Amino acid sequence: MSGHDAREASGTPAAAVAGRLRITEIFHSIQGEADAIGWRTVFVRLTGCPLRCVWCDTEYAFHGGNWHAIDDILAEVATHGAKHVCVTGGEPLAQKRCLILLRKLCDAGYEVSLETSGALDVSAVDPRVHKVMDLKAPGSGESARNLWSNLDHLLPHDQVKIVIASRADYEWACAVLAERTLADRCMVLFSPVWSKVEPRELAEWIIADKLPVRFQLQLHKLLWNDARGK
């Protein structure tokens, strides 16, 4: 639904809608991925995603959610007293006002990360934000959606994540790693799809091929399995 459509549906004045985002949940937990792994983090999960990866573990964020004023989001984040904030989804950049939230979080002094699918343009994201950008392997069902021009907008503190569901995905990831010189751009993360690839198997592939990548497991799933809001 576009912003105009949302105003039509809700009858809300344009000025009010301009400062709001549709949010699925805000919660305080431990970061389970990327370079901030292990840090106490506030997660702001935006609603909506244009992709449908077959192994997605946050389908509940595709629809629903509630409108929150951006300043109210910042106020709730502040109650948890954490230095790190992760804006995630769904696909957070599907809501254009996400860029405003990211900027305001940075202005407030937080270490801010953005989890994004790699299918939407990241060029306007505040450079202070740590972008954790997926490249979708064929096993996701969405590899055709990779926006390769996004690679030109990655900074050294950003990360590229490839989620791997099979040996074929791994071979694809190795080819992309070499052809796109990913490791020269930023940190590259290889992560196994939960229950599809044995973590030890992926780790052994990386070691055997001497890849310049960082192996990662989803720490939050080890701690809380699939519990929502963790």
TrEMBL record:
UniProt: S-adenosyl-L-methionine binding residues: W55, C56, D57, G90
Transmembrane segments: none
Pathway listed: Purine metabolism; 7-cyano-7-deazaguanine biosynthesis
Residue positions binding Mg(2+): T58
Residues that hold substrate according to the record: I30, Q31, G32, R45, T88
A GO molecular-function descriptor: S-adenosyl-L-methionine binding
Protein name: 7-carboxy-7-deazaguanine synthase
Organism of derivation: Rhodanobacter thiooxydans
Gene: queE
